[in-house]
Amino acid sequence: MVPADSFREDVIAGLSLPQKALPPKYFYDAMGSRLFEAICRLKEYYPTRSELALTGARIGEIARFAGKGSTLIEYGSGESLKSRLLIEALRPAAYIPVDISQDALRKAAAALRQRFPWLDILAVHGDFSQPLKIPVGAGTRSFSSRRVVYFPGSTIGNLTPAEAHAFLRMTRGQVGPRGAMLIGVDLKKDARLLHAAYNDAKGVTAAFNLNLLARINRELGADFRLRRFRHYAFYNAAQGRVEMHLVSLAAQSVNIGNHRFAFEAGESIHTENSYKYSVDGFRALAKSAGFRGGKVWLDRKGLFALHGLVAS
Ligand code: AVJ
To answer: I need a labelling partner for 290 at 20 to 30 A (CA). Which of 114, 135, 167, 226 fits?
Structure first.
């Protein structure tokens, strides 16, 4: 669980900005996580399927790139099919899943212990934006082996390029001079495909976006009226990102404890950025952060990229 206090503080701070905004990491309460899983199964939402397909098709090369017997550090709970493929092919000396949800982390680690009894698993509760603290003595065999950070799902797209640069630099410091990174990055593409992926016909993405307001109501006792807000997502070509907003359908005010926030009709809360990178664009970013572009794998339709980066 994210401490409730920082949730409240972040919400109050975000809604006090001239362009109201909320951090996307708060999408993932129990309901939000379920809705995200439903998004991943939508026909319009290509990233999950594309990344799984390319990982399955190229797993031998990917494992060779990472180096068998490495220490695999994954940001995200790692219960996914992709993680299993990678663990099977890599036979890592140790596997260190890092997640902000204690619950997701415990479930994922338990499922993987069942499935891979030989695997040394060390679950770390944390946030990918903070430097990793790996307890000394844990995963002893991992002590001397090469560190590889696995960051799938294009979660890096939630960061601005400046934040992504800082994150890559920090990770470069953590994997050390022999380290590497495997990172899933969604590609730039026809804006119509992007539009469909974030405006699905069943309205699951809209429900996912609106659940953030429902969560604020539930956990912070706010009085958002969800029917007075509408999901709005579009590709901002100048910035190279999909933006998600919640647009107020009327002039209204919302109370959170002693705070009151006024909305004009048409005013939005910016809830997420999802940056898209060309292969060369991402390589340039990684290079400036101390990685050289070792390898890149794309799915057959050229929708999604997995970059293998080596510390330089
Ligand atoms: C999990 C951040 C990669 O940006 O595509 C899906 C989240 N938001 N649909 C993305 C999301 C709306 C997703 N990431």
So the answer is: 135
Angle ∠(246,250,254) on CA atoms, nearest 5: 70
Contact 26, 271 (CB under 8 A): no
Residues touching ligand 1 (Cβ under 6 Å) are: 39, 47, 153-155, 157-158, 198, 205, 272, 274
For the record, the structure tokens of 207 come out as: 């429900």
Summarize pLDDT for 180-226 with one digit per residue, the tens.
Answer: 999 999 999 999 999 999 999 999 999 999 999 999 999 999 999 99
Q: How confident is the model at residue 143 (pLDDT cuts 50, 70, 90)?
A: low
Which position has the token pair 């579009």? 234
SS3 2: coil
* Cα–ligand 1 centroid distance for 177 (angstroms): 31
Burial class from Cβ neighbours inside 10 Å (0-12, 13-18, 19+) for residue 170 reads middle
- The mean pLDDT of 227-243, rounded to a whole number, is 98
Q: What is the pLDDT of residues 245-272, one digit of tens each?
A: 999 999 999 999 999 999 999 999 999 9
Ligand 1 probe mutation, 27, 272, 273, 304, most atoms within 8 A of CB? 272
Residues 87 and 69: beta-carbon distance below 8 Å: no
Do the Cβ atoms of 310 and 199 come closer than 8 Å? no
pLDDT of residue 1: 46
Amino acid identity of residue 97, one-letter, is P
Whether 39 shows a pLDDT value over 70: the answer reads yes
DSSP 92: -
